[in-house]
Amino acid sequence: MTLNRRDFLKVSGAGVAITLTGCSSQPSSGKSASMAKPHVVVVGAGFGGATCAKYIRQWGPNVDVTLIEPNDKFVSCPLSNWVLAGMKNLDFITHGYDNLPKHGIKMVKDYVTGIDVEKRVVTTKGGAKISYDRLVLAPGVEILADSVKGFKEAEAAGKVVHAWKAGPQTALLRKQLEAMPDGGTFVMSVPTAPYRCPPGPYERACLVASYFKQAKPKSKIILLDGNPDVASKPALFKGAWSELYAGMIDYRPNNAPFAVDGNTMTVSTEFDQVKGDVLNVVPKQRAGEVCDLAGARNDSNKAWCTVNLATFESTTAPNVHILGDSVLSNLPKSGHMATNHAKVCAAAIVELLAGRQPDPMPVVANTCYSAVSDSTAGYVANVFRFEAGKGYVTQPGGGATPKGDELNFTYAESWAQNIWADMLS
Ligand SMILES: Cc1cc2nc3c(=O)[nH]c(=O)nc-3n(C[C@H](O)[C@H](O)[C@H](O)COP(=O)(O)OP(=O)(O)OC[C@H]3O[C@@H](n4cnc5c(N)ncnc54)[C@H](O)[C@@H]3O)c2cc1C
């Protein structure tokens, strides 16, 4: 039998009512267990969390959803490099959460500080205790500031930033670049993989070079990469460096910083000690702190979360699903991918709450545009299907553009507008 969407929602609603015995005994709505709807709590309203909350409500209208996020507004990392280059301002990449309650999502402005996996309760900084039937953690990454000696002090003094979470640090780095004299040096580092947004650092180098070419043409960029080679779209970026920015970008692979000094404005690696006028050090990362509260930062380095990739349920914390950058997998850590995790997870949760089997072979896609100048961009795009025992297998087709062009630059901006609308409108 095939189900159309209307039938699916009817069955979904009925199924949810039947499986109430599986719900937590303390529904946050205060209704008695027999009356209560299943309750999903989502932590983090970024790409993964906001999308997951919205799609659970769309596909499972009988499921209550609470979304917990400390920030008033979402600031997008995609296109934040455009802000650094003066191509857009911070307002352009900042979006409110006003539309999410219209989907029936309960927004809670708070920060999760505790998780009791057995009792299925999260605790917040503001003192709330919220019960759940299923919990979704989508906290993005934790920046390991201590992994680079002196970074914390230099960051606290406002001298060196990572700007790897868009917001105030993006604005500060832009100001530092604007204040840099012509002929100055911008030193930037790339952490060893895995890290958030593999092409992001190389796009940043291109766009800062594009800005320098117009505003401070005697300036230089030193790019210290912890990886042995450009970790994503190498043809696109290396082509741009030689064709558009010849002599401007000094690329040094296998050169991760271990120390930074904000007073002498020096970065130290195993091989080099380089001075700069503006330093942009991006330390190593791991899954967001909240994953550790659930005991879900469980790979061999206790850095990332392993999940059942068909449902995104943690392999160690039952009823806890993890999305986006925090997940360990062969899939790229991108906003686009986080929204795809979110949809697979939302569908799986609706099925599980209705007592049915989730799709055993979900499909996800990734599209990532990178601008290489203020008018040209390239992309990488791939489709992956989950196969038990293998994980996500890349499907035929897809690939990356070897060179940026103007049409893809317009697509890059449309992509951002569309994905922001998908998650937040
Ligand atoms: C410079 C740069 C450029 C990028 N460009 C692109 C691009 O072009 N395309 C692309 O697809 N991706 C891009 N990315 C990657 C993209 O930003 C990330 O992959 C994406 O943000 C991951 O989504 P997420 O949901 O895992 O985390 P996030 O979007 O970071 O959301 C996490 C949310 O969780 C909240 N949170 C954390 N802890 C708690 C807690 N304890 N309680 C409550 N809330 C909490 C945070 O406040 C945050 O709002 C870029 C990244 C960077 C840095």
Describe the structure in brief:
The protein is of the alpha/beta class and 425 residues long. It has helices spanning 5-18, 47-59, 80-84, 151-156, 168-179, 200-215, 234-243, 289-293, 335-353, 406-424; strands at 39-43, 64-68, 73-75, 94-96, 105-108, 112-116, 121-124, 129-131, 134-137, 141-143, 185-190, 220-225, 249-252, 257-261, 266-269, 273-275, 278-280, 285-287, 307-308, 313-314, 320-322, 363-371, 377-387, 391-394, 399-400.
Architecture overview:
The chain is α/β, with parallel strands linked by helices and 425 residues long. The chain folds into two domains: 2-70 and 109-142 and 286-359, FAD/NAD(P)-binding domain (3-Layer(bba) Sandwich); 145-284, FAD/NAD(P)-binding domain (3-Layer(bba) Sandwich), CATH 3.50.50.60. It is 28% helix and 25% strand. It contains ten helices and 25 strands. The protein has helices spanning 5-18, 47-59, 80-84, 151-156, 168-179, 200-215, 234-243, 289-293, 335-353, 406-424, and strands spanning 39-43, 64-68, 73-75, 94-96, 105-108, 112-116, 121-124, 129-131, 134-137, 141-143, 185-190, 220-225, 249-252, 257-261, 266-269, 273-275, 278-280, 285-287, 307-308, 313-314, 320-322, 363-371, 377-387, 391-394, 399-400. It has a five-stranded parallel β-sheet with strand order 5-2-1-9-21, with helices on one face. A hairpin with a 4-residue loop joins strand 7 and strand 8. Helix 2 (47-59) packs parallel to helix 9 (335-353) and helix 2 packs across helix 10. The chain is globular. The two termini are 34 Å apart. Bound molecules: flavin-adenine dinucleotide.
